[in-house]
Specification:
- It is a single chain.
- The protein folds into 2 domains: 84 residues, K homology (KH) domain (GMP Synthetase, Chain A, domain 3); 78 residues, 2-Layer Sandwich (GMP Synthetase, Chain A, domain 3).
- The protein is built from 5 helices and 7 strands.
- Strands 1, 2, 3 and 4 form a 4-stranded mixed sheet that branches. Strands 5-6-7 form a 3-stranded mixed sheet.
- A hairpin with a 2-residue loop joins β1 and β2.
- The chain starts with 6 loop residues before the first helix and ends with a strand.
Length: 187
């Protein structure tokens, strides 16, 4: 909460968080290549991954990629850098067929809560962030981000963050054997 960081540290932390989101989305995380190039006033992100993962990262009609782009812009907010994603490249591997969702009792709940916490803390630096997990059914959980105090930013920033995590955590949860909905609340 309100820790003093240099612009370089903020950029590095933001890139690490984006890579963590991508790794959580990927079924084949060992095939993910996340390369960045900083130019005057911008950061370009190049993603190379397994074809199955490129489908997950883009999402239906580009929904997931737009949410990832929105999250990147929020994380880089105030850094005076424009973030752009270059076209995603696939490795030469064959695409895996779509699999039926299978719930897992051993899903990495703490790791996904930590990821959501770190994303919220990266965007809302002046707030105390807490993430709670609520069981909704035998295969579903709701992850709620609590912000205290409510951020002194435009309400559209909170809505944009909430929309991005809601979209991104559906395939992340599915990838880890859990149906997840993510939301933002205030104390």
């Amino acid at each position: 909460m309100n820790t003093m960081t240099t612009p370089e540290q903020r950029v590095e932390t933001s890139l690490e968080l984006l890579k963590a989101v991508l790794l959580a989305l990927c079924k084949y995380p060992d095939k993910l290549e996340f390369d960045t190039e900083e130019r005057a006033g911008s950061v370009q992100i190049r993603i190379t991954c397994h074809p199955t993962d490129s489908r997950r990262i883009v999402g239906k009609l580009g929904t997931c990629l737009r949410a990832l782009d929105s999250m990147a812009r929020l994380l880089f907010w105030g850094s005076h850098l424009l973030v752009t994603f270059l076209p995603i490249k696939s490795t030469a591997d064959a695409e895996s067929p779509k699999e039926k969702f299978e719930p897992r009792a051993d899903w990495p709940e703490e790791r996904l809560k930590d990821l959501l916490h770190d994303l919220a803390a990266g965007v809302f630096r002046d707030c105390a962030v807490r993430v709670e997990s609520t069981i909704v059914g035998h295969e579903s959980n709701n992850l709620t981000v609590w912000l205290d105090p409510f951020p002194a930013v435009e309400s559209h920033v909170v809505r944009r963050f909430a929309s991005s995590v809601a979209i991104l955590f559906v395939p992340i949860g599915t990838n880890h054997g859990r149906r997840i909905s993510a939301d933002v609340a205030t104390k």
